[in-house]
Amino acid sequence: MKFSRFWTRVQRLVVVLMLGMAGSAQAAYPDKPVRLVLPLAPGGAMDVLGRGLAERLGALWKVPVIVENRAGAGGNIAADQVARAAPDGYTLLLTGDMLVANQTLFQGTINYDPIKSFAPISIVAATPPVIVVRADSPIHDIAGLRQAASQQVVNIGTPGYGNSNHRALTRLQQQVPGTVQHVPYKGAGPAVVALLGGEIDAAIVALPAVSSLIANGQVRALAVLQDNRSDTVPQVPTAAQVGLRMDGDTGWFGLLAPAGTSSDVVNDVWRAVREAVTEPDFRARLLAIGFEPIADQPRAFADRIASDADKFPTLLRESGVALQ
Asked: DSSP states of 196-261 as a string?
């Protein structure tokens, strides 16, 4: 009898130790490299944000955070890849609001659901679209753009379909008489290269993709396509000041994990993101190039995705965006 009681106690002790070891292993996240997948090509605003965030998270976690650009199909290639990844926190997606818009734009042709396929972590930052031309362009302002479009085709590049830049362009097309042609690229980087190379007449991209080019005079900003002036480029007029209506549609950049990722891991990543974007040097870097650091909680991000999913179908159809 005594031996039986002793053996029972030993078994209980082993169970307790095993549970403790399991808890310690879980608390060790991350203990290997983390992949951060981006849906656009290098060189744009999202790439700048993603690489800066990866650097900060890697420093906090003391493991490499590897950025992987998976451009194409309006961001759907990257989103689908992450949606199918193991829900263990080691594959994350940094994307924009085209994740939600694409459900309408690519009806029946995408393999993920923006709400059901992901575990939202945080909106990392927001930024407005800006319309820019080359420094030697004969178009000096929105009035000049209107005049040019009335006389010839004006080709304007964006980082692709569905994002806030594309939606801003469709609103511009509705309000500028004449012909404004959309030229989509696989990210802001390629769109800006095309602009500087003379392939297109103008580009609408997120402000951080061109803030340094505005500062050094390589491109001229015609308007920041939001209601308020930007502290980064305070000399550039707002959409309203040049007679354009943009309905306050400013883009966000958010971090997500595959659906099924544990709430513990989601919250661990969110806390690290919050620490990263509130770190003074990194925050100052983001603000200087045109980002508004946010780092809101997972529940708030989930609510934003649900809200956008409700309003985007009507918004996209009313703005005249062509379905793909």
From this structure: HTTSSSEEEEEGGGTHHHHHTTSEEEEEESSSS--SSSTTSPBTGGGT---TT--EEEEEEEETT-
Least confident span in 11-15, 221-225, 281-285: 11-15
User: What are the chain's domains?
Assistant: 34-127+250-319 (3.40.190.150), 129-242 (3.40.190.10)
Q: Is the pLDDT of residue 243 over 90?
A: yes
Judged by DSSP in three states, 180 sits in strand
Q: Which residues of 244-254 are buried (b: 16+ CB within 10 A; e: fewer)?
A: bebeebbbbbb
Q: Which two tokens stand for residue 90?
A: 């080691």
Pairing between β-strand 118-127 and β-strand 251-258 as defined by DSSP bridges = antiparallel
Q: How many whole angstroms separate alpha carbon 92 and alpha carbon 57?
A: 12
Encode pLDDT of 31-74 as tens digits.
Answer: 999 999 999 888 888 899 999 999 999 999 999 999 999 998 88
Distance separating alpha carbons of residues 202 and 241, to the nearest angstrom: 19
* Cα 133 from Cα 201, distance rounded (Å): 6
Residue 13: its pLDDT value, please? 52
Give the Cβ contact number of residue 26 at 10 Å. Answer: 12
Which contacts (CB < 8 Å, 24+ apart) does range 84-89 have?
84/258, 85/258, 86/258, 87/119, 87/257, 87/258, 87/259, 87/260, 87/261, 87/262, 88/261, 88/265, 89/29, 89/30, 89/34, 89/257, 89/261, 89/262, 89/265, 89/266, 89/268, 89/269
Helices (H), 86-140: 98-105
Short-list 260, 155, 164, 135, CA closest to 203: 155
State pLDDT tens for residues 275-310: 999 999 999 999 999 999 999 999 999 999 999 999
